[in-house]
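Enoyl-CoA hydratase
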Amino acid sequence: MSKHITQQVTKGVLILTINRPEKRNALTQDMYQALTDGLEQASKHDDVRAVLIQGSSSCFTAGNDLKDFQSIDQPPEKLPVVQFLRCLLDFDKPLIAAAAGAAVGIGTTLLLHCDLVYAAEDTRFQLPFTHLGLVPEAGSSLLLPQLVGYPRAAELLLLGDAFDAKTAKQMGMINQVLTNKELLPFAKQQAQRIAALPTEAIDASRKLLRQPRRKALRRTLEAELTCFFNALSSKESKRAIKAALKRVSGD
Ligand SMILES: C/C=C/C(=O)SCCNC(=O)CCNC(=O)[C@H](O)C(C)(C)COP(=O)(O)OP(=O)(O)OC[C@H]1O[C@@H](n2cnc3c(N)ncnc32)[C@H](O)[C@@H]1OP(=O)(O)O
């Protein structure tokens, strides 16, 4: 268990909270492992009927820890981030997310796997993969065009500009925009509402919603992973990640 991911079960909802404020909740391999453990436990326990993933009321996550990218020294297969992405794809209970402040990289793409997504007014989404010499992950090269149409998806994934919560709502990426104060209580309430509904009907409905894209999503995720880890070992990406780290931390 990572000290940066906390777990709490309330009224049938497992709340996974990302808590590394000093680094804008950037995700390390330990944190991905803790998130995967949380989802796997939730899947096994009948008393958990929905999962809420959240950061704080002012920051969701700045995405993958950039230093962590530089220190990857094991085959992708064994990496917790890869296990987390596969687990996300197969997760069999309702998944709700509450995003505020930074929602960068995987902080945006993981939302595409959630059933309900709520965002605070100040949320800044960004998919800066190409800036880092990388490619889309988490099945986003399939899910994003399906959700917002090819032209907008291409713009977001190729140019990598940040966009706000209002734009995300207009594009159909999220359910609702709330104030920072309202966000976490409202997301919890919605998760608890789902958890209180007849479980078999919720699970079967969710399966029906997801089933048509399941195989294609799995294929896309695996193709992206191959491409992503090839890119990560390229000179272009190493240079870009070093520059990004310098920009955010001065290192
Ligand atoms: C498979 C997954 C792939 C991906 O997720 S790719 C995406 C990778 N993520 C990024 O490229 C985001 C990089 N971060 C930023 O662009 C900015 O930050 C933000 C827009 C998220 C926030 O900006 P601001 O509020 O001004 O904060 P700040 O001063 O830049 O950072 C505060 C502290 O947080 C650390 N930090 C921020 N993001 C990361 C990160 N992604 N990895 C590691 N550290 C990060 C900094 O270094 C610094 O910390 P210190 O004060 O100790 O230097």
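thats it. The chain has a mean pLDDT of 97. DSSP finds eleven helices and nine strands in the chain. bye
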